[in-house]
Amino acid sequence: MKVTFEELKFFLEEQFPQGAAYGALEALGEGWAEMTLAVEDDHLRPGGTVSGPAMMALADVTMYAALLSRIGLVPLAVTTNLNINFLRKPVAHAPIRARATLLKVGRTMGVGEVFVYSDGMEDPVAHSTMTYSIPPEKYQN
What we know:
Layout: H1 5-15, E1 24-29, E2 32-37, E3 44-45, E4 49-50, H2 52-71, E5 78-86, E6 96-105, E7 109-118, E8 126-133
Antiparallel strand pairs: 1-2, 2-6, 3-4, 5-8, 6-7, 7-8
Keywords: Hydrolase
Family: Belongs to the thioesterase PaaI family.
Pfam families: 4HBT
């Protein structure tokens, strides 16, 4: 792993402070990450379900964490494609958690998938695939 859990947590707090609104880093490994979002009223949409943007944000920042575990602290690695399928209604006010796994990492791109779960439910509530652009070394750090 190119970055430790503690290093990534500090990096996200310092360089991506708005990310705290999207979830908290819970676990990190070589090419994978897990994050949790405490669902608040701000995350709900009419009908009492967690909004799509809240689930997408959690999935995106979780994939970012997984990618950084592999490539190191590269602030300019950015999402170039995000596809998400909402599979079932999450439990309102229950935390949602995401697990991102990298499928492939090259010199200029990383591709992975994220499953989003709602506490109290066994099956995933969303599944996402993402592509990240990795900048050339001269633009890293």
